[in-house]
Specification:
With about 110 residues, the chain is an alpha+beta fold. It has helices spanning about 5-15, 25-30, 35-45, and strands at about 20-25, 60-65, 70-80, 95-105.
């Protein structure tokens, strides 16, 4: 399996379960009513519409969803286990902490 395929597999597993990394919510997402916040998180988990335009590297590391006429972005970044540096090997879960940041598009 090549690195992009392994990264995609790890990203999909994390995004669908939120297990195996950290999930950060921006102030705008955190301010949503709990049911609305959960609806947005569910859309991120369920997203499958990856294509060459929104996923040029085939790693499934960025999602854009809409909820109640508001656009949200979810981005997965790769950190070294110390969380102070970027991971040099995002295909290796022993050397990488995945961090998914969910934000309103206007917070980008």
């Amino acid at each position: 399996m090549n690195n992009s395929a392994r990264i995609r597999e790890l990203n999909d597993a994390f995004r669908k379960s939120f297990v195996g990394g950290r999930v950060l919510l921006t102030a705008g997402v955190n301010a949503l009513e709990p049911s609305e916040r959960e609806a947005v998180l569910r859309k991120v988990r369920d997203f499958v519409s990856f294509d060459p335009d929104n996923d040029p590297y085939g790693e499934h590391d960025f999602v854009s969803v809409e909820h109640n006429n508001e656009r949200y972005f979810a981005k997965i970044d790769y950190y070294a286990p110390d969380l102070a540096h970027g991971s040099e090997e995002p295909a290796d879960p022993a050397k990488t902490v995945r961090v998914l940041t969910l934000m309103r598009a206007d917070e980008y």
